[in-house]
Amino acid sequence: MKISKIAKLVKNTGCIQLIQIDVDKMYLGAGGVAVYATEGLPLISGRDQARIILDLTKDQMDKIEVVEDAGTLTTTGIINFNMKADDKKVVEWETRRIEAAAMIDGKIVDVLELEGGEILLFDNDYLSPLNEELKSPYFKLRVRENEQKKKYIVAYDGLFIKAAIMPTMVNNEYFQKLDSFLQAMEKIRPAAETE
Question: What pLDDT digit, counting tens, does each position of 69-82 carry?
């Protein structure tokens, strides 16, 4: 787990969640979009400790909202990620990355396909704190649903959940632009070859 990568995400989102689970586990959240399981970090509370852990200057930290949260492994953070790997009550889907990407607000995002064909878009930058875990043969992405029926992505390394990430959301305007693009592309589609 790269704390410096979490710090970069926190700077981009302008918010860090300090989430203490029970008495001995600390999770760091970036802007309500992702939560990371930390190992070997002391319990963190307050702006000053967060600044030290993230290695940010006072000026940088002044631009960041600090949200302190206590939770359990089944309700981690303000968007209710469930970080308990062996929770039998949780519905979970296998995923696969498909060889496609989407451009949203000038940023390329990855596409995950769930069993059954549903797709989720996600910002690959939120995997950057997991550089070491990504090299593991046991790393995988799965999808869960929170109590509000919103799907989110969980990153496993073996039997342990290392992160939970909200998918990238798109609005109707995005689909209107996509439809216009597809209509324009139809005009240059090559004719099917006949034998």
Answer: 876 666 666 667 88
